[in-house]
Amino acid sequence: LGALIARFRTGRGQKVETSLLESALAFCGENAARFFENGKVPGRATRTHQAQVYAFTASDKKAFVVHLSSPRKFWEALARVAGHAEWIEDARFATKESRGKNYDVLDKALSDIFASNTRAFWLDQLLAADVPAAPLNTFDDVFADPQVQHLKMRVDVPHPKLGSVGLIRGGLSLSDTPLAIHSCAPELGEHNEEVLAPLRKS
């Protein structure tokens, strides 16, 4: 996009290059900046601990996530929903920094509590208390979601052997040149005649 805007401004195109290595590293900006600052190698859980993100599995084996972020009100509301208002001033959890140091202790305590009822129950309680929380959906949850169905993200296209197959449409909507999927991936050799026939004539 930057090159396209530059072309509009200057009238000149340019070569745009990237690689899997460059693009993957570019997504590590926050953790890399911290590593450059303090020399500590981040682990898989570093970001979740710093951001105060927790994932739980409810009694119905459905998962959900809680993001406490920075405002203290989220922590206070979570403690009350969990039935432990006394944790609000507990030295282990009272501040974001102390919760980070005791992340595993708090995670275990909350995991035991949230395993006692269904995901729907806990999400109702958490959202009513203004705690940032959301389901961690599996594909069956995703494609049953009313918004996903409204967006028509699943597209069924004809298949020569299976009748039809389901695919996911592109994630962009263009007003003047809409994207569409009309067919599935071809079978091996399916278009041989179409491709080779003109070559034979030449």
The main β sheet shows up as: 3 strands, antiparallel
Judged by helices, strands and strand pairing, the structural class is: alpha+beta
User: What low-confidence regions span 5 or more consecutive residues with pLDDT below 50?
Assistant: none
Molecular shape: extended
Give the spatial strand order of the biggest sheet.
Answer: 1-2-3
Tell me roughly what share of residues is in helical segments: 40-55%
Radius of gyration: 25 Å
Number of helices: 11
Strand content: 5-15%
Name the features.
single chain, 202 residues, alpha+beta, 3-stranded antiparallel beta sheet, two-stranded antiparallel ribbon, 11 helices, 45% helix
Structure write-up:
The chain is an alpha+beta fold and 202 residues long. The chain is built from 11 helices and 5 strands; from the N terminus they run ααααββααααβααββα. The chain has helices at residues 2-10, 20-26, 29-38, 46-51, 72-81, 96-101, 103-114, 119-128, 139-144, 146-150, 192-201, and strands at 53-57, 63-67, 133-136, 154-159, 163-168. The strands form 2 sheets. It has a 3-stranded antiparallel β-sheet with strand order 1-2-3. A two-stranded antiparallel ribbon has the order 4-5.
Helix and strand layout, with pairings?
Layout: H1 2-10, H2 20-26, H3 29-38, H4 46-51, E1 53-57, E2 63-67, H5 72-81, H6 96-101, H7 103-114, H8 119-128, E3 133-136, H9 139-144, H10 146-150, E4 154-159, E5 163-168, H11 192-201
Short description, anyone?
With 202 residues, the protein is α+β, with helices and mostly antiparallel strands. It is 45% helix and 13% strand.
